[in-house]
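quick one
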Amino acid sequence: MKRNSSPGWTLLFSTCILVPAMELHGQEAVAEGQRSTRMGVYSREQWMRGRDIYAGMCAGCHPATTHTGPAFTVSWAGKKLSDLFGFIRERMPKNDPGSLSEQEYVDVMSYMLRLNGMPQGVEELPADSVALTRIRIDSSRVAPPAPVQR
Ligand code: HEC
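structure w/ heme C:
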């Protein structure tokens, strides 16, 4: 599958810059103005809406295992949420890309974070690709994925 950015480079970059910083400051070691998906960036209501969308629009083609656990980490760790948002918005559902509303895409993305063991918070993820550039996908200390909820 083709993507615009080079995952190798991103990985190298985050390994050099983030790892030493994380050792010093633990969870707060995200660059200034940046948040990570470990910080409770979506709400319960949001992922529950996303779960319904996922069941209706996504689950018919792929099981959650295609984008949870190691598969998710390989593709998305260290990237920005805006990258994942852009991917699903432009490419999914595969048979009718772009057919959901922006709100539906961001809701379904929150459910993907849920499936990957990212904690829920009180605020919703905004359907705003600029705001989403400021949230990093951090799957470094992720617990095993939550059981698939249908
Ligand atoms: C018609 C079948 C189909 C539907 C419906 C579909 N997908 Fe996909 N999806 C695919 C295929 C095939 C791939 C493999 C990559 C490619 O061909 O672009 C994929 C890949 C993905 C990936 C990339 C996996 C990774 O991390 O490398 C994500 C994320 C994803 N789909 C999310 C979704 C979401 C969210 C929905 C619902 C809105 C959805 N898909 C609906 C067929 C589908």
